[in-house]
Structure formats: structure tokens, C-alpha cells
Amino acid sequence: MATNAHQPPIDDRDIHRTPFGLAYLVFVFLPLIFPPQRTASAALASLLAAALFIPLYLRFHKLDPRRQAASTMATALLGYALIPFNGGGNTFIIYALAMAAQCMAVRTAIVLAVLLVAVMGAEFWLIMPGQMYALWSVVVVAVIGTLAIANILYLRARAWRNAELRLTQDEVRRLAAVAERERIGRDLHDLLGHTLSVVALKSELAGKLLDHDPAAARSQIREVEDVARHALAQVREAVAGIRATGLPAELAAARLALLSADVRLDQRVAPVTLDSQVELAFTMALREAVTNIIRHASARRVEVELTADDCGTRLLIADDGRGGIARHGNGLAGMRERLLAIGGELEVDSPPGAGTRLAIRGPKP
To answer: How far apart are the first and last CA of the chain?
Structure first.
């Protein structure tokens, strides 16, 4: 019997542990209300079956896949054994169908479900006094069991997709980090390699001129100082650029993060060449906005639009969430500070219950 032993693990928090709780055991005892099955033997058999089932139910998700499959079959056998005494034993068949959907491969679970319902139908047909009663009992179990299996398989597929998104997101971060390290290495080599070569040559020249031409030596030392100061400014600029991954990479990371939270991202990005400082401010603003949307907005859809005209560049981030955000929160305050530093501005529109719209304007060219 195939199980999910060879499938990658899926976080159980993404799946309901069972489609029915123990409270649904009430349907096992419901037929005992009616006179034909209101007997002491039926009640005793039902109590015994429930007592045997409860430990199986409580331990099911602590077992390995093979033992889960065995528990599924044991639950079905409890139902078959109870049906001759109490028709409510078909409830255990529904439990077994749901358990099979959780612990077995999809095709195996479907095939087993058909077999379990078919065996139950044959049993009802043989022991029930009326054929219509047997038919309706099978139909009810088939419908409820199908809904339970479909629900479990849907949740498994969603959990699988979320797991894939998390893996993809980790891979994107890893590749981005590798690319960033390579870029930093090239930038530092290009920047410091040339600068240090100039410093070394001019220092050597100043040392040779020091004895017979002190004025020329002092001139070379001043040039060394100027080169060093210029190199320091370039290093500071490079370090500031290291903090940003670039707007395209941040958009890709935002899409993955939003998808993992079941939020759709629609983006319209014009082919705009941004100044490094503007791109850094836009990137950090997008990162902060997406983080806030995932944590607080309860949104289902996000729009990101980047445009440029004679008045400058504009980044629009809008969501359909709950709105009503504080206009002077720490996140928005940080955005405004970064934008003010480059001559930009931030407009916030967040009416309660109608989503949030951030209009981020860059400086005029």
C-alpha cells in the first residue's frame, strides 16, 4: 500500500489534522434513538467501537506513514464490524476516508476510498431490511467522504505549494547573496585596487623627492591625501549601496513573500533608469510596505506601479486590506526620512476598511 513516505515533509500547521473532530462520534449513536436499532447489544457494540477508535484518532498524527495506513484500515474494520449492530458504523468509514487522504498518496487514497465505500455498500445491501435504506446510506457516506477527501487533498496541495514557495524564496535569497558578494568584490577591487596603486606610486615618488626637492615631495603628499579622501568617500557610497539589492530583485522577493501569504501581486514597472540613491530609497520603501501588508493589512491583492515623467519618478504601492494605518508610524517615518534625504516625498492614503495607498515620489531629474 503506497503512502506518502517518499514525499517531502509538509508542515502539519498548514493542514487540518482531521476533517472531523471526535465530536462527530455522535453520529455513531444517532441511529440508536430510533426503535429498530435501540437495543442493548447495539449500544454496547457502539460504545466498544468508540472506545477502540478514540486512541487511534488521538495517536494518528504521531505515527509514521505505514502505521497511519494501518490505523486507517483498523478504523474501517471497526465500522464494518459495527454496521450489523448499528448502521451508524458508517461514520467510521468516513473517518477512514479522511485518514487515508492525509497519510497516503493521492491515487492510492482515491482507489482505497472507492473500495471502502463499495465494501460498505455490499454489507448494507446484505444486512439491511430495505434496499432503499441501504442505497441512501451508501450515497450519504459517498457524498460526505468525497467532500472530506477533496478538502484534505486541497489542503495538502496548498501546503505543498507553500513549501515550494518557501524553498524558492530561500534559493532566491541565496543566489542574490552570492551575486551581491561577487558585485561587492568587483566594486572593491575596481575602487581600492586603482586607488591604492596611485597612493603607493605617489608615496614612493614623494620619498625620492624628499631630499633634493621638498616642495615637490609635499605636493605629492597632498595629492596622496586628496586621493585617500576621495577613496574614502567612494567607499562610503559603496557601503550605502550594499544595503540595497536593487528594485528588480526586491520586486521578485516581494512577489514570493506575498504569494506565500496568499496575496496576489500585480506590477507595472516602466523601463526607468534610476539613480542609485533613488533606487535605494524606493527599494527600502517597497520592502517596508510589503512587510507591513503581510503582517497587518489582511489584504488579498497588492499593486505596484513605477512610472517616470518630467516631474520625476513615482512608485505606487496599493493594497485592498483593512486600511486605517497610522500616518506617522515608525515605518512611514523611516520612509519619509530616506525620501527627504534625496529630495523625494511620500503621500499616504489609508481610509479605514478601504486599503492603503502609498505614493512615493523621487526627485526631479
So the answer is: 68
pLDDT of 16 strictly over 70: no
Report the SS3 class of residue 304. strand
Q: Would you say 264 and 333 are in contact if contact means Cβ atoms under 8 Å apart?
A: no
Average pLDDT over residues 235-248: 63
Q: Is 65 helix (H, G, I), strand (E, B) or coil?
A: helix
Whether the per-residue pLDDT at 14 is higher than 50: the answer is no
Sequence letter at residue 66: R
Q: Sort 107 into a burial class: Cβ within 10 Å, 0-12 / 13-18 / 19+.
A: exposed
Q: What is the mean pLDDT of the chain?
A: 79
**Cα–Cα distance, 291 to 95 (Å, whole number):** 40
pLDDT of residue 241: 56
Question: Could you tell me the sign of the dihedral formed by the alpha carbons of 115, 117, 122, 123, in that order?
Answer: positive
27 pLDDT more than 90: no
Residue 77 has pLDDT above 90, yes or no: yes
How is 84-144 classified by DSSP, letter by letter? TT-GGGHHHHHHHHHHHHHHS-HHHHHHHHHHHHHHHHHHHHHH-S-HHHHHHHHHHHHHH
CB 319 within 8 A of CB 261: no
Q: Which residues pair with 309 in a beta bridge?
A: 312
Q: Where are the beta strands (DSSP E) in the chain?
A: 264-269, 301-309, 312-319, 345-349, 356-361
